[in-house]
Each structure stands twice: as structure tokens, then as C-alpha cells.
Amino acid sequence: MAGSPVATVVPPLAQSVQEMSVNGNEPPPQYFLKENSIQPMDSYLPSDPIPIIDISLLSSSSLSSKGGEEELQKFKSTLTSWGCFQAVGHGLSSSFLDKVREVGKQFFALPVEEKEKYSRATDGIEGYGNDPILSENQVLDWSYRLFLRLQPVDQRKLRLWPENPTEFREVLDEYGTKVKIIMDVLFKAMAKSLNLEENSFSSRFGERAVMQTRFNFYLSCPRPDLVLGVKPHSDRSGITVLLQDKEVEGLQVFKDDKWFKVPVIPHALVVNLGDQMQIMSNGIFKSPIHRVVTNSERMRISVAMFNEPEPEKEIGPVEGLIDEKRPRLYRDVKNYASFNFECFQKGVVPLESAKI
Ligand code: OGA
Ligand code: NI
């Protein structure tokens, strides 16, 4: 979503989301869903909920077992149809996942002035705050974010990494390292499921692949019928790993013209593919459209980790996935982050613009 730096062109709103949430004030129309957006607000409760996959069965050593082969088939069909799943068997303890959510919540509970020490610069991407407002027509998200780059390590802007709570940086660093290991397993499994050499995807990301995190904070909202926490979007990443709130739902995925709730499974990690995997897989795997709805009672937190190729590396459909039956769908692109942002500004869908 976020992209290259651009100055804010519209003056800030009179009241912050935090003030409106605390006071129960009616949000201004800038937050209201547009009539023509993908409706309706109430989601269809699916009979086939988003799949659960045991990723311990997808590691190289397990894949040769019978359980491994079956799970790999399920993994492949899930990525082809949904583009997302709930991952269990990821090896991270529940207490550690609680800690990650907890440091996020503790940061968000700090006084506004304290959080603002880590504010996103008007022309920057990283740091704490709301999305930049780039046009008067933009529908605003009912959320706060803390967006930080973890890798390459020498690009960390530590001055934007909270020092309060004191263990914030350490927990985030450890979480990033652990999620990266999971992403590596997923890259290999994706390649194997398509009968490709196991590094076919991961090698495209380069030595200095990017890893970023976004802590999302969604406050209770007096008008959940009209206001979204995050508008419908697909992620620009390769892979996104999302730690959901332990109790409060909100995430929904769009499939077969319906919105599906992603239920809370406290120890699971939601994995969804981003646009760059859809491109590299020549459209075989999906980068799902998703959104976050608001609720009038409780705050919700989530922590997303995104990986991306080195910006200068050109990515495109992997050779082995292009043939007469499945001609090349996408052209080569580089710096998808900027490309994505330019598309967003022009109001065009990035994946459509990358088509041949
Ligand atoms: C995101 C996102 C979903 C959520 O950060 O890109 O889609 O549940 N988050 O917060
Ligand atoms: Ni997203």
C-alpha cells in the first residue's frame, strides 16, 4: 500500500481517529465507503472457511513422507484458489506470539505525544501514524500504523523503532528472524509444488531482499456499517505473514465474489501471497484482495510482515511456468513498491498494469 514519498496535499482532518473513537464521534464522510466499492459490508459466512495448513509438513525433510505430499497438494490448491491460509505447525510458541502482540499494544497505549516521537515524516513511509492523504477523494482507513523496515539490517531506521516498551526492539528483531525462516520454507514448498527447482522463487529476491513490518491498530468505530479499518487491497509483497489479534476478528478475504471472514485462531499465522508472487508464478498463485472491517466495541491489533525482492532486481514469471498452454501473463517489473504506488495514485490496479 504505502510507496514512494510524496508530500501531503490535503490539510489534516479536524479530529484524529483516536479522538473520534474515544469520544464516540461520528466520523466525517472522508471515511465512508463509496457506493461503488466492493459491497456489501456484511460478509457471507462461508461453509468452506479459509484452509488451515500444517507447515511443519512442508519442510524439505517432511515432504518425502506421505503426510508431506498430501499437505503439499493442499498447499498448492489453496494458493491457486485462495492465495491465503492459516498456518499452524510454524514452530513459534504461543507465549512468544503473545509477546509480539503485547509489545505492539503497549506501544499503542502510550500517550499520543510519546508515540509521535516515532511519527512518519510527511514525505516518508516509515514510522507511526495514518496513511498519507493524497487526494480529496481518498477514502480514509480507520487505523493507525507503525511501519518499519527490518532488512537489509543496515537500512533500519532505529530512531523510528520504539524504545518503550523496553523490549520492543528485541522482540521485533527476534520475530522478524523467525518469520523469515518460515518464509524460506514457504518459498521452497511453493517451488516444489510446481515441480520447480527449490530456489526458483527465493533466488529472485536477491542478497539484499527487503523485509518490512506493519503493526496495525484498529480502534473501535461508531460506524462499522460505513467505515473500514483497511480498504480492499492486495499486498504488494512476495509473501505476507500476519499475526492477527487473539480475540477480535476483522480481516476478510474476497473470493468468488464474496467476502469471507478470517476467523481468529490464536496460535495460527495468516499467510497470504502478494502481487509479486502472483507475477512470478505467472498467475498460478493468487494475491488475494482483502480488507479489514471495524467494530463498535473493541480495539484490534495485527502485525504484518512483508518480504520483497531487492528493488533493483527485475521480477517476472519464472521460466518453467510459461508454455503454450499458459503464455506469459506479466511483463518484467522492478521496484514494485514504486510501481505499486504510482498505480495507486493513478487509481489503477497494479496487477492489471503489469499484464502484457
Ligand atoms: C495489511 C493488512 C490485515 C489486518 O497490513 O496489509 O491487510 O488484519 N492487514 O490487519
Ligand atoms: Ni494487506
Automatic annotation (TrEMBL):
Keyword annotations of the record: Iron, Metal-binding, Oxidoreductase
Gene3D superfamilies membership: B-lactam Antibiotic, Isopenicillin N Synthase, Chain (2.60.120.330)
SUPFAM superfamilies: Clavaminate synthase-like (SSF51197)
Pfam families according to UniProt: 2OG-FeII_Oxy, DIOX_N
Domain Fe2OG dioxygenase: 209-309
Family named by the database record: Belongs to the iron/ascorbate-dependent oxidoreductase family.
Annotated protein name in UniProt: Fe2OG dioxygenase domain-containing protein
